[in-house]
Amino acid sequence: MTPGAILLSDTAAERFGRRMQSLAPTRPLVRVADDAVDGDLDAVEIAFFSGDLFPERVGPFIRQLVRCKELRWFHTFSAGVDNPFFAGLLERGIRLSTSSGAMATPIAHTVMLYLLALSRDLPGWLRAQAQHVWEPRPVQELSGRTLGVLGLGPIGMEVARLGAAFGMHVIGMRREPRGDEPCETWPLTRLDELLQRANDLVLALPLSDATHHILDADAMARLPKGARIVNVGRGELVDEAALADALASGHLAGAGLDVFEVEPLPEDSPLWGRPDVIVTPHSSGTTPGNQERAAEIFLENLARYGRGDALRNEILSP
To answer: How far is CA 80 from each of CA 99, 100, 156, rounded to the nearest angstrom?
Structure first.
């Protein structure tokens, strides 16, 4: 048995294997191709959970992972680690790191797509086009509107930067402002104050007990009439039943949603049929460059791990 091997998908091995072996030449690669394994699972110390595995190939990879009794470090292509699986790794003493930041740019671009589309009623224009109807209508400008950004991780920071470039007054919110943010930044304790001012509200928070349903019926009622929301964080940040009610009442003017409390979004959800809602299937950041950026973070961490340095994006507690 040769200890210290890296478990990864056959696709990741083909694309990034040479660079891994140049950084860690003594570490064998153990390749997983569906339910077939090329290598010694007993030797695995490191696992790279790459984006090509999600979602169809997650099961076969995890089935092989649980057989790796010497696993010491798990790196995931994702940014969020609220799934109980990740807590289980930490409880077993396995180090956990993420690729937070890899998808920030494409997700932030999609956020601006939602805001532009909703402010101009692009869904209405598309319906008119499909019916061959010439239907002029007024549009709203983004400039001058107040954009609230809940969560200033890599995604929120890029949303704030782009919002400012569109002439919006951006107020970011995080647990404790650090002073290096690209916008005016308030602590989460001032959420009620922000809600009263935000014409557009973007949720880019991680999910926790404190953030579950942070946008509930009471919070939505505090938003100005005609406000719009965008959720690219986690579906459970928003009370979807309350959102549907706030849209139906006319208090909220629209929503761009890429994440949902239940995924796929159930067919009977009232959000599907609303003309003021844009529904996308948890794909706001799905671009070809993501896997490259996530792999770059893993490769940087692989070098750090070999030197005994701190890992980038390491999660230190469940």
So the answer is: 9, 8, 14
End-to-end Cα, the chain, rounded Å? 32
Q: CA 52, CA 77: separation in Å to the nearest integer? A: 9
Whose CA is closest to 182, among 171, 190, 193? 171
Tally Cβ neighbours within 10 Å of residue 283. Answer: 11
Q: What is the pTM of this model?
A: 0.90
Which residue ranges does the chain devote to CATH 3.40.50.720? 5-102+288-315, 104-279
* CATH code linked to domain 104-279: 3.40.50.720
For residue 251, which of 189, 190, 201 has the smallest C-alpha distance? 201
Q: Model confidence over 37-74: pLDDT tens digits?
A: 999 999 999 999 999 998 899 999 999 999 999 999 99
The residue assigned the tokens 């928070």 is 205
Residues facing 46 on adjacent strands: 6, 73
Tell me the sheet residues that pair with 221.
none
Which residues are CB-contacts of 271 (< 8 A; sequence separation ≥ 6)? 240, 243, 244, 255, 257, 260, 265, 277, 279
Distance CA 194, CA 182 (A): 17
User: What residues form DSSP beta bridges with 48?
Assistant: 75
Whose CA is closest to 265, among 281, 276, 250? Answer: 281
CATH class name, domain 5-102+288-315:
alpha beta
Give me the active site residues, please.
Answer: 234, 263, 282
- pLDDT single digits (tens) 157-211: 999 999 999 999 999 999 999 999 999 999 999 999 999 999 999 999 999 999 9
